[in-house]
Each structure stands twice: as structure tokens, then as C-alpha cells.
């Protein structure tokens, strides 16, 4: 039998210790890498958490502050910083600046985030930076880039319209879209039988923009009281030449309550017919409306004019002007215009100019009357003061007037850096013999993106002959000279038009009592086609105004209501 002796594999045995050391080393390296990846993952997760928190804070700060633009960057910045502070970031970590436009606010927040595991390799912290840009689209400014809204016969400013408000029992088909609750029939736009579904009892709102609260502000209304004169001022018996001469004998200083020279221009001011002083107060019932004017403070919700706090202090209280209806001379108890103005012929105090709570005929009829005056102090601040105008009874009349505002200058106002405009709705009474006129419609600043301007005209075309109506961009704002994309509808049905011009407009052609809507595409300021790009100087209050051009042979005599809005969210993020 043969015996075999196993020989040890010396080569294999000699490698065992070496392989065991290799495995240990490899395992140790892998453990270190795994620990580094785990540590990096922990730090990365922490960075992402802080990025999200920082981004949320930047967006909230931008959205909160942008509502104060473009008028008040200081408040916008302070608001953004306060919101960032509420999220745990101090002012040294926050940068606030304007975006591409003066209605955009960019907020950048930086933070040094402590590291947990990377500090072992000397990286103690990681810098996080996040930004957000918000844009605020203010309610559309309508009607005027100037200090006066409507005609101002005393200064010669004549945009060829008066502001207008109807009492609630005037029929809607006579032109006031929102202040009336009565419809003639269901054929009138947005009526249900004899009820106006668009009736708004709060009236109309106008804004006075204050940019320098160190200057006092005075707000005035021209002819704020409803006085029945007829739409062409042909109703009452106007003062005769002899009566005008008599009135001028009373303003020589002998009467305490008649200012010297008060009746110097009485022949023009109190003349009948379609003069520059004819506001055209009219009625459709037995009497006209009492009209209330109130002034409200700016607030932090500029997209909502219904919640502004009302001012009720000395020199700035709500004022209600009762209706007056002059009749034939000496037909008491109702007096004529001359009798109301004369200290000798009248039977009451309406001839007095007292500047107190007694709102006399003499100081309100065809005169500028101060409804509010504020001096520098707690009641005067930067922002938009809201003037609300509404009727207070169930009569059936239309009151026409104008508004203006500015620092006090004599008995009037100074127009230095002052703006007064309507908010979203503009009820007007246009009465002009001009065959080709332009009205300031709406202010549309440029934007980095394309937007839609939606404009409506209610009950247009009360004219002697058919005309054209066109919506036009501010001069020089578009290379083409007109809005390239524009569509009109009449009572919801498309109307053929070109170059944003509506032809053959006349009430009897179907435009009476109906709503005409224009949908206008406003191109981006960055449009690649330079002939289409929309740009204007938003820092110039007289620029960026879209206008309405009315071409009617023989002129127009029309009560109408216009609205304008930019479609989209008022406050929105445009970059993050």
C-alpha cells in the first residue's frame, strides 16, 4: 500500500496575511468614504432645508413689499425687511432693490449655514443665496395725468368731459352703468328685467396721489351740488344783464360774506347755454340727488379702495350737497339763480361765502369748493387718498362735476407734481362740438411680459352722426403707432375692426344701452420686433397713457361709463 503525504501549499499560506491586511485597509477606506458621503448627505440636506426656508422668506418679502410700488420704494423696502425679519433674517442678510420695472421688487437673502461633518476638512459653513422678484399691477389709472379730473373752466384745462354720477332711480340706459339700479327693460346691457345687476351703492372712487407729505394738500370739487340746469344749460331763467350788474355792486367789500371781486366774471360764469361753465346737471324725475363726497386715507391694500379709513376731522369731513332747483324769479318759496346769489333779493343765506359747515349756493354753484385740506402731520402721508362720490337718496337726476387736488395756492391749488385719476371706472358726460377729440383712457406702464388690457364702453354713440372710436397707445410707445392685436365685441358679439379702430359707432346702430368691449394685447417691452415692443417712460406721470380718439361729425353729447383693467393677478411672482 502506498502512502501519500499531503504537502502544504506554502504559496497559498504565504498570501493569507497579505490579503487580510488588504481587506482591512479597503474596508477602512470604504468606511471613511461612506462616512464622508453620509456626512455630506446630512450637510446637503441641511443646505436644501435652508435654501427652501430662504426662498420662502424671499418670496414672502417681495410679495409683501411690492404692493407699495411704484410710488413708495421706502415703505416697500421697510415692509420687505420686516417680513424677512419675521422669518429670522436681519437686515444685513437682505438686499432689496427694484426689478426690471419700477413696479417690480427684487429681494435677495443670504445666509451662512453651519456644516456638521464638512467642518472636519475645514469647511465650517456654506453660503446660501436665494432671490425672488414680485410685480404689482396697480388698479388701472383712468382719465387724467394731471392735477384735475374733468373740465376746469377757471384754469382753461378742457379735456371735453365732466365727471358724472346718477342717482339710483335714473335709468341705466341713460349712461351710468354702476350707480343706477333701474333698467328700462331687459334689453339694456347686464340688466335683469328692470333691475341693474351691476348696481354698486358705494358710488365711484377717485385717487389723489401724494408723493411729498411735507406739502399740504387741498382737494376741491367744481360745482359739487346738483342744480337743475338741463344737459345744455337751457332750463332756468339765468341772471339778466341788469342783475349781473347789480351783483357786481355787492363784491366791493361792503358785505362781510362776499369776497372782493367775487362777481367780476359773473356775466360769463352765470350765462345760460353750452358755455365752458355748463356742467349739464339734468333730471329724469321730479328732483335731483343729494351728493356725498368723502376722503379716505391710503392703506396697504391698494388693489381694494373699499376698505380705506375715512377721514373725519376739521377741514376734512364728509360733505353732502343737497339738490337745488332754481325757478323763475320771485316764484317763492323756490328762488332763481339771481335770488340765491343776491343779498338783497333772496330770503336766506345762500348768497354768503362763509367757508363753514353751511354749504351755500354762492360758494358751490359753478365754483371750486374745498372738500378736504390736510396739513403736514399724522393725517398726511405718502400714497393714494381715495375720494368717494355717491348719491344718498332715491331721486332721478344726474350730477356733473370735476375734481382737482394739489398744494393750496390762493383759493385754488398748485399743480406741482400732482396727479388725480379715476380707479378702474370712469363715468363721464362728454359735451363737445369738436369733431375729433382725444380722451385719456388708462395708464399702462411697460412690462417684461405681454399683457391684456380689457376696456369697456357703455352706452356710447349719442351723437348727431355715426363716428369712429379708436384705442391708441401713448405717442411713441409702439413703432407701429397702433396696437397690433385688438378685438372689439358689442354685447358679446365680435365686431369687425382694424388697427384698434371701431367704425360706424352710433346709438341707433346698436351701440345705445350696450357694452362695447375692447381686448387689447399690450406687447412686452422686450418684444424681439422693435416695431411691436411697447415702451414708455414710467417715471414721467404724463407718459404711458392709452387714449381714446373719438371722431364724430358734429361732436358728441353723451353720458357714458368706461372701465379698464389689466388681466392677471395684481400681485405675482415673476422670477425666483
Describe this structure in words.
This protein is α+β, with helices and mostly antiparallel strands and 576 residues long. Among the domains are: 121 residues, no CATH class; 144 residues, no CATH class. It contains six helices and 30 strands. β24 and β25 form a beta hairpin. It is elongated, with a radius of gyration of 35 Å. The N terminus is likely disordered.
Name the descriptors.
alpha+beta; 6 helices; disordered N terminus
Total helical segments? 6
Number of β-strand runs? 30
Structural class: alpha+beta
What is the mean predicted local confidence, pLDDT? Answer: 88
Cα-atom radius of gyration: 35 Å
Instruction: Report the sheet-strand fraction.
Output: 25-35%
Q: What about the largest sheet?
A: 12 strands, antiparallel
Q: Unreliable stretches, pLDDT < 50, 5 or more residues?
A: 1-8
Describe the global form: elongated
Q: What portion of residues is helical?
A: 10-25%
Distance between the termini: 92 Å
Oligomerization status of the protein chains: single chain
What is the gist of this entry?
The chain is of the alpha+beta class and 576 residues long. Among the domains are: 16-136, no CATH class; 433-576, no CATH class.
Secondary structure: elements and pairs:
Elements (H helix, E strand, L loop, with lengths): L9 H57 L6 H14 L7 E5 L5 E11 L10 E12 L4 E2 L5 E2 L12 E5 L24 E2 L2 E2 L7 E7 L6 E6 L18 H7 L18 H4 L12 E2 L7 E6 L22 E3 L15 H5 L19 H4 L3 E7 L8 E9 L5 E10 L1 E2 L2 E2 L5 E5 L1 E8 L3 E8 L7 E8 L8 E6 L13 E5 L2 E3 L5 E5 L9 E8 L22 E7 L4 E11 L4 E5 L1
Helix pairs in contact: 1-2
